[in-house]
Design brief:
mainly alpha
Length: about 110
């Protein structure tokens, strides 16, 4: 095995650019860096959640079953690690956003 898996920082740069105005505002207000991190994780979690909603809607549209979409939402709600990792700034989380949107487009 040649070593560690190379990682990209492109997703982190995107989140940093989008959240920079809020970070700057919090800095000038004298707020703790904790709130900047909280906002960043909220933003990433929101992007993941919007991607999941988009995917769930495409499943409902493709299979013409609202019950299947509800079941998909319940599966997400009752498992632990997927909602937990939705706000983690890991490369796999950024890939998850693109993957869910790609599957949503594929279902349509």
């Amino acid at each position: 095995f040649p070593g560690v898996v190379p990682r990209s920082f492109i997703g982190d740069v995107f989140i940093a650019l989008v959240s920079f105005p809020v970070h700057l505002s919090l800095f000038f207000l004298g707020a703790s860096k904790f709130y900047s991190q909280l906002f960043t994780r909220f933003l990433l979690g929101l992007l993941c959640w919007i991607s999941f909603i988009n995917f769930r809607k495409s499943v409902v549209h493709r299979y013409k079953s609202v019950r299947l979409g509800a079941l998909l939402g319940l599966i997400l709600a009752f498992q632990f690690h997927l909602p937990y990792y939705m706000s983690r700034t890991l490369p796999n989380t950024f890939a998850f956003i693109f993957t869910l949107n790609a599957f949503a487009l594929w279902h349509q």
